Amino acid sequence: MPDNTSSLWKEKSIVFIGFMGVGKTTIGELVAEKLNRDFIDADQEIEKELGMKTADIFQTYGEAFFRAKEKEVITYLSQQKEAIISVGGGAFLQEEIRQICLDHCIVVCLDLSWKSWKERMNLLIDTRPVLQGRSLSDIKDLFYQRQAIYSNHHININTDSLPAEVVAEHVITSIHNLQFNQK
Ligand code: S3P
Question: DSSP 3-state helix, strand, coil percentages of the chain (rounded to 5)?
Answer without folding.
Answer: 60, 10, 30
